[in-house]
Amino acid sequence: MRRLLTLLWTWRIQRATAFVLALTVVFASVVIVIAAVLDHTRRTERITQSEEQAQHFVSAAEAAINSSLLGVDVLLASVDNLLDISKSAHDWMDPATASHLIQNAMRQNLLVSRLALVEPDGSILASSDRKPQNTQLALPGNFFKESFSAITPGLTIAAPVMSFQSSEQVLYFARPLHFSDGRPLLVVAEVPVSQLARVLIQGANIDGLQATLERGDGTLLAATGNTSRVLRSHLEPPLNALQAAGTTSGTAIGQTPALARLTPVPAIVMVRTTLYRDVYVTASIPVAAALRDWRREISFIHGFAALLITLILAAATFTLWYLDRLQRAQASIARGKEVLDQALGSMVSGFILLDAHHCAVTWNRQFLVLHPWLIGIMEPDIPFRTLVEVTAGYILPGSTADTRAQWVEQRMASLASGREDRQVTFGNGIILEITERATPDGGVVIVYQDVTRLRRAIADAESLAFYDPLTGLPNRRLLNDRLQRCIDLSAISGQFGVLMFLDLDHFKTLNDTAGHEMGDLLLQQVAQRLKSCVREEDTVARLGGDEFVVLLDNLSPDLYEAKARARRVGENILAQLTQPYRLQLTEYSSTCSIGAALFGRQTLDTTELLKHADIAMYQVKNTGRNGLCFFDPDMLAAITGRADMERDLRHAKDAGQFVLHFQVQVGASGQAVGAEVLLRWLHPTLGLVAPIQFIGLAEETGLILGIGAWVLQHTCLQIKAWERDPVLSALPLAVNVSARQFRSPTFVQEVSRVLSETGINPRLLKLELTESLMLDNMDETIVKMQQLKALGVRFSIDDFGTGYSSLAYLTQLPIDQLKIDRSFVRNIGVQTSDAAVIDSIIGLARSLGLEVIAEGVETNAQREFLALHGCANCQGYLFGRPQPLEAFEASLHALGTPLQVDAAQTTDVQPAY
What we know:
Blueprint: H1 2-83, H2 95-106, E1 114-118, E2 124-127, H3 143-148, E3 156-157, E4 161-162, E5 169-178, E6 184-192, H4 193-201, E7 210-215, E8 220-224, H5 239-244, E9 248-249, E10 252-253, E11 258-259, E12 266-273, E13 279-286, H6 287-290, H7 292-334, H8 336-345, E14 350-354, E15 360-363, H9 365-370, H10 384-395, H11 401-416, E16 419-425, E17 431-438, E18 444-450, H12 452-466, H13 476-493, E19 496-504, H14 507-514, H15 516-532, E20 539-544, E21 547-556, H16 559-577, E22 581-583, E23 586-588, E24 592-599, H17 606-622, E25 628-630, H18 633-652, E26 658-666, E27 672-683, E28 687-689, H19 695-701, H20 704-721, E29 733-736, H21 739-743, H22 747-758, E30 765-770, H23 771-775, H24 778-790, E31 794-800, H25 807-812, E32 817-820, H26 822-826, H27 832-848, E33 851-855, H28 860-868, E34 873-875, E35 883-884, H29 885-893, H30 903-906
Parallel strand pairs: 24-25, 27-29, 29-30, 30-31, 31-32, 32-33, 33-34
Antiparallel strand pairs: 1-2, 1-6, 3-5, 4-5, 5-6, 7-8, 7-13, 9-10, 11-12, 12-13, 14-15, 14-18, 16-17, 17-18, 19-21, 19-24, 20-21, 22-23, 26-27, 26-34, 26-35, 27-28
Helix pairs in contact: 1-2, 1-4, 1-7, 10-11, 14-15, 20-22
C-alpha cells in the first residue's frame, strides 16, 4: 500500500511537470510573435516618415535654390541695361565708371561676392572690386566658349573652383553679352559655395541629412550634411545616367534604400530639378539615421520581450523546483530521525536532555568530553542532582561540605527556573558557557559550550587594542580615551593638567648600529623609568617607535603652580632617562626631548593637544635636544606659515608663478660678458618672493629638483630665443645648481636632454656650484662634472673663498671660473684681510688658468681695486640690479652693438648626446 501511494504521488508530479513545460512554450512563442510584428510595423513607419521628410525638404530646397539662382540670373541680365552694353561700342566703355555701377548693382544680391565683365581673352574689363585691375577670376579654360555656345543664351554655371582672392570654393555664373560692334563680352558673378550651401540646407534639422546641388553629369556644385567627400568634383553615378537607365521614378532614385549621393551608404534619396536645365537638388537620408529611433524602440521591445520570457521561464523553473522539493520532502521525512540522532552525536557542544523530574533522558559524546568525571556514573534516568553533587566536588576542591551543599542547592534552584545562561570556570582553567531551555513537557535542555579559547582571544584582543605589546604601556587608542576624559574633567573642575610628548634622541642610530633587539630593550627600560617618575593615577603611554606620552592631571587650579609642578616632573624624567642603560652586556647612554602642553579651562580636542606637545618637542630638537619646552602659540603660527608656504610652493610651478630675472656681468671696458639667471616667485598674495625665503624650504622638501629642472629648461630656451638677436646671441647665462639637484642620479641625463631638445650652443650655459657641494663625495663630483664638461657645459665655483678651498680639488675638477664672494668685496677698503684674500683668489685663478669674476660690486672704488689686482669681470648693483626679461633685453639693446664676449666662451663644441 505504501509503495502504491508513492507511485501515485510520483505520477501526479510528472503530469504537473509536463503541463508546466507545455504552458511555458506557448507563452514564450506568443511573446516572440508579438515582438516580431511590432518590429516590422515600426520599421515600415520609420522608413515612410523619413521618405516624407526627404520629399518635403527637397521641395523646399528646390524653391530656395530656384529663387537664389533666379536672383543671380536677374542680376547678370540687369548689367546689360545698367551699362547699355548692347548699344555701345567696346571702346566707348569707361572701366572705372562701369566698375562703380557694378558695385552698386551687386549690393542688391547678398549671395554674390564678386561681379565682373570678362573679355574673350580672360581679362577683366570691369569688376565690383575696389581695384579691378588686380582682379583675377579662376574661370575654367573653356568657360567663355561654353557660355557662348549654348543653343539658347542664358545662365551658365561653372564647376566649383578655388578663388584667388578668398581661397575658398566658389561657383561662377555667367551670361553672354555683345557690344554694338559685335564684340562678345561675358558678365560673370562669383558665388561662394558655402553661401549656396546655406541656401540649400535652409535651416533643416534632419538627422544624417545629406543635400547636394549638382548637374546631371554628376558635377557637384554645392553640398551640405556629411562633407567628408565634398571635395570630389563628380558624384557617381550621374543623375542623367540614372534617368537614362530608367532607375528614377518621380522624385525618388531607385528603390529604398538607394546609395546616398555623398557617401556610399544605403539611404533614402529624393531628387528635384530646378528652373535651370541640367541642375538638380537631391536629399539623402541614410537608412541608419532613419532607423535610429526604430532601433531604440526595438531594443526596448526586445528587452521587454526578453524580460517577459525570462519571467515565464523563472516562473516555470520555480514551479518545477517546487514540485521537485515536494517529492524530495517525502523522502527526507523518513530519514529525519536518523539524521537528528547523527547530528546530536556530532555536536561540538555538550548536550543533555532532562525529563520533567530532572532525570537524564539522553546526552551526546561531547557532554562526557567536557565532564570526564561523570563517565563512570552516566546512565539513563540518573537524577541531575547526583551529577551536580559530583561536579561540585570537582570544581570546588578543598571546600567544606556545607559550601558544596550550598552550591548544589543554588544550581538546582537555577535549573528550576527553566531558563538560565551562565559561565563556569573549572579548576583546570576550562570555561564552560551553559545554556538552559525548558521543553514543552516540563523537561530541560542543557547545552555546554567550551569558550575557553574564545575568552582568552577576547582578552588578548583587548590587550592588543589598548596596550603596547612591547612595553605593556597604554597605546594611542587608550591614551586618546583617557586624555579626552581628563580634558573634560579639567574643564569642569578648573584643575590644570599637562601632556608631555617625549622622543628619544638618536634612537634610529641605535637601531641601525646595534639592531632592533637592542632598541626594544632600551624602549622597555625607558617605559619602566617613566612609570617610576609619575603618580599611580597618571598615564604613561607609547605612541609608537621611540615616542612616549606622559599625562598628568589635577596638578593645580593655578596656572603657574601647575606649570611649575609639570616642569619638576619633566626635569625628573630628563634626569632619570639620562642615566646609563644596561643593554645585555653593553652600557648605553641616551637623552630625550620633551614637549609639554598645558590644558585646563580652555577646551581642546585630543588631536590638537597632541599637536601642541609635538610642536614643542620639535622646538627642543631644533635648539639642541635633551630639554623641556612648553608649547607657545607663536610656535604654531611659525609652523602653520611654513606649511602654507610649502603648500603654495608645491603648486607654484604648475601655476606659472616662477619668473626669471637676469643680472648683467660686465668686463673691463664695461661691456656685457654674461648674465646670471636668478629665480623669483611671483606669489598671488605675497607678491615677488626672493629665493632666500623659499629655496631652503624647497631643499628640505625635495621640491628643489622640480624647480631646478624648470630653471634649467627655461634658461636654455632663453638662450635659444636669443640666437637670432645680433646683440644677445652670444651672451652666456649662469645658473645656480643646488646640492640636492646636483646629487640627483639623473642630473647629467637631465642636462643632456635639455641641451638636445633646445639645440643651443652648450658653451653659453654655465653651471654655478658651491665649494661645499664639490667637497662632498669628491669622486662622484668629478665624474659628473667631467660628463657635463664633455657635453660642452662650463662651470663656475660660486661664493669662492667662504668654504674650504684647496689646490688639491681645484686641480682635479674641470672648473672654468672662480666667483669671489660678495662678503669679501663688501669689505674692500674696510678690512685689509679681505683684500688679501681677494688678491690670493685672483692669483690662484691666474696660476690655474681660470677666469675670475667678483660679485656684489656696488661702488667704483671696489671696481677699481678689483681691476688693479687683475679681476676685470664684475657683477653687482653698480652695473645693474636683477631685472625681468623685457627690462634686461631693453637695457642691453640700448647699447646698440653686439656683445664683446671672449671667443673661448662661445666656440662651438660638439655635445656628447
